[in-house]
Write a structure and sequence with these properties.
The protein is about 35% helix and about 20% strand. The protein contains 14 helices and 18 strands. A hairpin with a 2-residue loop joins β10 and β11. α6 (about 195-205) crosses α13, α9 packs across α14 (about 455-460) and α12 (about 415-425) crosses α13 (about 430-440).
């Protein structure tokens, strides 16, 4: 059965490029810089900074003479044709020797398209771009720079290179001044990439007092735990559910996506992006839906969705009966009923996908706390990076267990820290020095190597 990824036109919910563009544009509006950031002024020409995400690529153009950002642009990562997650793309690279070049060409074409659009917006000649900086997860950095990523799929997941890469414009195949320099932000470990390095720079979590959990929730979830003196980092395979993939009616956070859900008095209220006819459900809406279904006692602790026959037994609102259906032996809950029968539903399998994703994140946090000898009660704040963290309902995230049970005011949405950080690293030498120091200051925790990982993960899948 086809699973909607939200980045194509196969299923009809991604009707045109405008819908995908809307999802990408959201990423350009989440760039926030710390109050103490002072970009260097008087540098020559312009600079371009890129956050290469598995799904979305964001570009920022800077006037380095003035030390200010002047344009932003985002596009869908064209490599998704060869796999929606990093493991799929790594596997594709390993099949044929020319596949690495194919993936590399796709991403450089995307970056050059962004450069052209940025320059058009700002009225700048690309020949005046003298420097560029790039960050991404470790796989994205490898593919951009042309390094084989296959070792990243095999324990102990050693990268093909370490440290900061400095490439000539021609080596990086970027359409900037031929004398320009391209910096690839250093990765921290095999699956903790330069996007996390940039995120740490932008979020200033190492300067915060107390215990901080930094989370970048995506297909590959990265977690950093720091008390300001000791810092740990890990990665965990959260899967694509929170990005709308592997969900029957899942889609990207684009126009028409249900992003908020409330279940009350047997009725379902929802809000779509763009406040228009619902086309599917995105990650924030999915978390809301599952959290609301838990509160309404439609889902038990094991993740089992009740049937219509259970409504009376549990003394629930009778109106819920008509929303609890079964198709081909699978239970479903109807969120939106449509006259043409193309209802938007949450299936039992969707709930299982959420459990897999949230279990991976929750287990990672738990094991990192154990590594530092801390508990959930010791957490002073949780900083959520990325677009996803900007739109999720904090209470819903705590309810399903993707975030630890802490007060909502302790949860901070930090926006696109990778995009902000990669810009800061390009725009100021002090930020560059900080980024280069981080791999040696941060201890990587290999969750899979821990004896209690499997049991912790299985336990974390349950709804508490």
């Amino acid at each position: 059965m086809f699973k909607c990824t939200g980045v194509c036109s196969t299923c009809g919910r991604c009707k045109n490029s405008a819908m995908m563009s809307g999802a990408n544009d959201r990423k350009t509006k989440m760039l926030a810089y710390p109050d103490d950031f002072r970009p260097a002024e008087g540098k020559e020409g312009y600079g371009a900074a890129f956050d290469i995400g598995t799904t979305t690529v964001v570009g920022m153009l800077w006037d380095l003479c003035k030390g200010e950002q002047i344009a932003t642009c985002a596009k869908t990562n064209p490599q998704n044709e060869f796999g929606m997650d990093v493991i799929s793309r790594i596997t594709f690279c390993g099949r044929e020797s020319e596949n690495l070049d194919l993936l590399r060409n796709r991403i450089t074409e995307c970056l050059n398209g962004i450069i052209a659009e940025l320059c058009e917006k700002a009225g700048v000649d690309a020949e005046n771009i003298m420097t560029a900086s790039v960050c991404g997860n470790t796989t994205m950095s490898h593919l951009f720079a042309g390094y084989p990523p296959m070792t990243l799929a095999l324990a102990p997941f050693h990268p093909a290179y370490t440290g900061t890469l400095r490439l000539a414009a021609s080596e990086a195949m970027l359409d900037i001044n031929e004398k320009g320099t391209v910096i690839v932000v250093p990765n921290i470990a095999g699956h903790v990439g330069g996007d996390i390095t940039a995120g740490i720079v932008a979020s200033r979590i190492l300067d915060m007092e107390g215990l901080t959990v930094f989370i970048d929730i995506g297909t590959n979830g990265e977690i950093v735990l720091t008390d300001g003196m000791k810092t740990y980092a890990c990665s965990t395979a959260a899967g694509p559910a929170f990005e709308g993939s592997a969900i029957l009616h899942g889609m990207r956070a684009a126009t028409g996506a249900i992003e908020k859900i409330r279940i009350e008095d047997g009725d379902v209220d929802f809000k779509t992006i763009g406040e228009c006819e619902p086309q599917g459900i995105c990650g924030s809406g999915l978390i809301d839906a599952v959290a609301q279904m838990i509160k309404a006692k439609l889902i038990n602790k094991t993740g089992r969705l009740i049937g219509a026959e259970d409504v009376d037994k549990k003394k629930l609102n009778p109106a819920l009966k008509e929303r609890l259906i079964e198709v081909d032996g699978e239970r479903r809950f109807v969120l939106v009923s449509k006259a043409n029968g193309d209802d938007i539903v949450i299936t039992q399998n969707d709930i299982r996908e959420v459990q897999l994703a949230k279990g991976a994140i929750a287990a990672g946090i738990q094991l990192m706390l154990e590594e530092m000898g801390k508990t959930v009660e010791d957490i002073d704040r949780v900083v959520i990076a990325g677009a996803f963290g900007n739109y999720i309902d904090k209470e819903s995230a705590v309810t399903i267990g993707v975030l630890p049970k802490i007060a909502p005011e302790k949860i901070i949405s930090a926006g696109n820290t990778a995009g902000a950080g990669v810009s800061m690293i390009m725009a100021d030498e002090k930020e560059m020095a900080l980024a280069e120091s981080l791999p040696d200051r941060i201890e990587h925790v290999d969750l899979a190597a821990r004896d209690n990982f499997q049991n912790t993960y299985l336990s974390a899948m349950a709804f508490r």
